[in-house]
Amino acid sequence: MYQYRPTCLTLPAVAVALLLSSCDSTAPVAEVSFSKQIQPILTQHCLKCHDEKGEGTVASGLRLSGYETLLQGTKFGPVIKPGDSLSSTLIILVEGRANPSINMPHGNQTPLNSGQIQTLRQWIDQGARNN
Ligand code: HEC
Q: Is the bond preceding residue 105 a cis peptide, omega within 30 degrees?
């Protein structure tokens, strides 16, 4: 006699779901350009405090006016780990994963939107190159 066995139906469904989600995250992404995509985000949202004499630069030593100074980081060290966006300080701060008082941009500035954060993360994961 036929017996309903849920595993026969649910297992393939779970497998398909897993497959789909893993395909999604490993899908090839276009190369992100520092000069065309990253610097404009920094210029628009960060530079007023992180240019030569901005309060962020004075307090932390981090200048966001170009590639070299971005990679140099703060007086305490790098804020970007090429290939590892998850543990890059800059991403932790713009994603708001740190203490809210030190999230970037500071204060009541407009936070980066998820598309901008995604672009930053992709660029770092692709090696944070000066491209
Ligand atoms: C309103 C001013 C302001 C804006 C805008 C701003 N910052 Fe900052 N930033 C600061 C100040 C001040 C500090 C010094 C450390 C602190 O007070 O947290 C700082 C420090 C930092 C640090 C170093 C934190 C550490 O661990 O030492 C990073 C990274 C940073 N900012 C990234 C950014 C990025 C990326 C943006 C743009 C998305 C941005 N900031 C926009 C003011 C600002």
A: yes
